[in-house]
Amino acid sequence: MNQDYIKPDNWSIIEEGFDVERVKSSESLFSIGNGAMGQRANFEETYSGETFQGSYIAGIYYPDKTKVGWWKNGYPKYFAKVLNAPNWIGIDVKINEENLDLNTCTEVKNFRRELNMKEGWYNRSFEATLKNGTEIAVNIRRFLSLDLDEAGIIKYEITPLNKDAKIVYKPYIDAGVTNEDANWEEKFWEPLEVKKGANEAFVTAQTFKTHFKVTTFMHNTIFANGENVNISPSTIDSTTDKVQFTYGTIIAKGQTSSIQKIGGYTVSLNHENTLAAAEKTIKAAVTLGYDALLQNQIDSWSKIWEMSDITIDGDVKAQQGIRFNIFQLNQTYLGKDSRLNIGPKGFTGEKYGGSTYWDTEAYCIPFYMATKDQQVARNLLTYRFNQLDKAIENAKDNLGFKNGAALYPMVTMNGEECHNEWEITHEEIHRNGAIAFAIYNYHRFTGDYSYIPEKGLEVLIGIARFWHQRASFSKEKNQYVILGVTGPNEYENNINNNFYTNYIAKWCIDYASEQINKVALEYPSDHKRVLEKVKLSANEIQEWKKVANDMYFPISKELGIYLQQDGFLDKDLVPVKDLDRSQRPINQKWSWDRVLRSPYIKQADVLQCFYFFEDHFSKEELERNFDFYESFTVHESSLSPCVHSIQAAHLDKMDMAYTFYLRTSRLDLDDYNKEVEEGCHITSMAGTWMSIVEGFGGMRVKNDQLHFAPKIPKEWKGYSFKINFRNQILKVAVNHNETTFTVDGDQDLTIVVNGKPEIAGKFAQIN
C-alpha cells in the first residue's frame, strides 16, 4: 500500500481535503465512462497545478510513430494509442474579476470528491477564498449518460458566502489537445468546421492518418437559485478548433448561481453526418432535462448492479474494492459493439495505448459471460474473428510463416500489431493461446457451440498452424521445443521452453483437432466450407499432432515442479521475503539487466497454466508449484494477485487468499505499484471478480454443470454474488454457517457442491 486517503464506504469512492500531491491520482480514481466515452476527473475550471488532462472516445485511435526499433525488419512502425479527445468539460470561471483556480486560492477547505458507484455520478465540492477576498462554496456534479451515451452533463453551482458576486462562466469546447504520452509531440486532430448557435456550439475535427471524424458539442443554460434566467452569451470567441462563450451574472451573498452544460461527441464510426447527429443528441438531452437524465442514469446503473453486484458483509474496504472494480469494468465496456474492446486502462489514462491485449480473453471474458447476456462475450470473440486476416498477415510478413498461420498481435486497435518492444511483439506469443482458450471457455460456460462452426474454427486452425510452425525439433531432446520466447513473466526475455507457452501450444493443437472432428460430425456443411476456405488436409493435421504429442516440458524431478523455463534453477534463488523492501518495486529500482538475471517473477506464469488447466494436474502438483513460485513472485503486474488468490483459496491457504484478494481489489485505490496517476488497471479488475467467484466461491464449470466449493475469509461475515449460467440466474450466498443457492424462476438447476449433486434453491449447504 502506498496511499491511504480514500475513505472506506460501501458504495462510494470518497476523498476529503485538498492536496495538490493527490490531484493526478484522484483524476484516475474518480474517472467516469459509459462504454462509448470516458474522462479523467479533471477540474472543469482552470487549474494551474500539475494535472493529467484526458478525455477518450471508444474506438478512436492514432498510429503514433514508435521511437523504439522502427528501423528493424518486422518491427511495428507505430504504437497505436487512444487519443486525448477534444475537451468538452471546460468551464473557466471568474468571480469578482478573479479567475477561480484551486492552485492559487488563499484557502481551500471542506474539499470533497465522491464517485457514487451505485448511481453513476461524480461530485466535487469545496469552499474557497480567492485572492480578492471573495469566499465561495462550489458544488459540481458530472455524469456520462448510459442511455444517451453520446452525451454527458455538468451541473456547476457557486454560492458566494461573504459578499455579493459577479460570476462569469466561460464554457468552451476545444479540439486543440495533445496526448500526455505523445512520442513526437505531433498534433493528432485536424480542425474541419466550427458552428455556433445561441447557447450551443460544435467543433468538428478529424484525426490525422486514421481520419476518424468527431463532432464535439456543448449546450449551456444559466440558472439562479434553480430558475433558468434565459440569457445568451455576452461574447462568443472562436478559432479553428475552439469555441468559448461568456455568460455574466450577478448573484447575492447566500444565493446560488449555476451553469448546466451538456456536452459530448458524435463520431464517424456511428454517423455519416456527425454534426447533424450532435444536434439531435443535444435536442434529446435538453428535452429530457437534467433531473430526468440523472434519474435515467440511476435507473440504468440499478439494472447493472442487480446482476453484477457482489456483496461483502463485515469488511467495508473489501466491499468498496470489489464494487470499484465492477463499476470501472461496466464504465469501460458494455458489450454493445463488437468493433470495440477493453483497454488495460479503459478511459482512465493513456498507458498501454488503450489497445486490446490478451487480458480480454484471459481475464475479462469470464466476468462478462457471468454478469451479462452471453452475446456480450460473443462480441468479444467476434472482435478477434474479424481480425483473423490481419493475424495471418502478421505471421506471414513479420515472421515468414505460411499457409494461413495466424499470430494475433500482443497489442492492437484494428488487428495490426502495434507494440513497440521486440521482446513483447515477437516473443510473448502465448497470447495466441489465450484467444483459443477464450473460445473453449465461452462454449464451456454458455453451452453455445454455434460460434465455433460459424467463426471460431477458422481462428483455431490459424492458431494451430502457428504453433506447428513456431515449434522446432530438438535432436538432443528428441522432442519439439519452442525457443526465444517471453512468457507471462515479462521479467524474463528471450528464454527457451517456457512451460506455460509450450503447454498452451500443445493444448491449442489438441483442441483445434478435436473441434475439427466435432464440426465434421455435427455441422458438416460448415466443416466443408471452412476446410475448403483454409485448404486444410488430414495430412496437415497429423503433422500438427506430431508436435503436440512430442512437446517438451522442462521439469525438476528433485523438486517435483515444472520449470518456468530451461535454466530457471541456475539463478540465484533468493526468495522475495529476503529482498530488502527498499528495493521494491524492482522495476522502478533496478536496471533491466538486473531484473532479467534475477529469479523474481512479475506475475503468474507456471501458475497461469495451473489456473487455466486446473483439471490437468493434481492438487498436490499445484501445491508444490504454488509454494515454489509464489515465493519468488513480486506481483508487479496487476494481473498477478488475482490468480494467486484463486489458487491459494483452492489450497485452503485462506489468509494468503484474502491478502491477495485485498491487493487485487484495492490495487488502484491504495496504489500498490505507485502508478495510479497514469490510470487504473481496468482489465485486472475482472480478475478481482474471479478471485471471489472462482476463488472463495470455488465456481468451476465441469461436464456442463456448475461446481462450487465455497469458503469464506475469517474477516468477513458473509458474501454473495449472482451468475447468469445458460440463461438461468443463480444467486450464491455464503456465511460462516451455511451456503445457499437460489435460482430465479421456476426451472430447477442442478449444481455440484463439494463434489455432491444438488438442486439449487432446494437446499442450504452447511459449511
Word description of this protein:
With 767 residues, the chain is α+β, with helices and mostly antiparallel strands. The protein has a domain of 277 residues: Glycoside hydrolase, family 65, N-terminal domain (Beta-galactosidase, Chain A, domain 5, Distorted Sandwich). Helix content is 33%, strand content 24%. The protein has 19 helices and 33 strands. Strands 1, 9, 10, 11, 12, 14, 15, 16, 17 and 20 form a ten-stranded antiparallel sheet that branches. The chain has a five-stranded antiparallel sheet with strand order 8-7-13-19-18, with no helix packed on it. α4 packs across α19, α8 packs across α10 and α17 packs antiparallel against α18. It is globular and about 85 Å long. The model has no long low-confidence stretch (mean pLDDT 94).
Looking at the structure, the CATH topology of the domain at 32-308 is Beta-galactosidase, Chain A, domain 5
Q: What is the CATH class of the domain at 32-308?
A: Mainly Beta
End-to-end Cα distance: 33 Å
Low-confidence stretches: none
Family: Belongs to the glycosyl hydrolase 65 family.
Binding site for substrate: 358-359, 602-603
Domain Glycoside hydrolase family 65 C-terminal: 699-757
Active site: 490
Provide the descriptors you would attach to this structure in a database record.
five-stranded antiparallel β-sheet; Beta-galactosidase, Chain A, domain 5; 767 residues; alpha+beta; ten-stranded antiparallel β-sheet; 33% helix
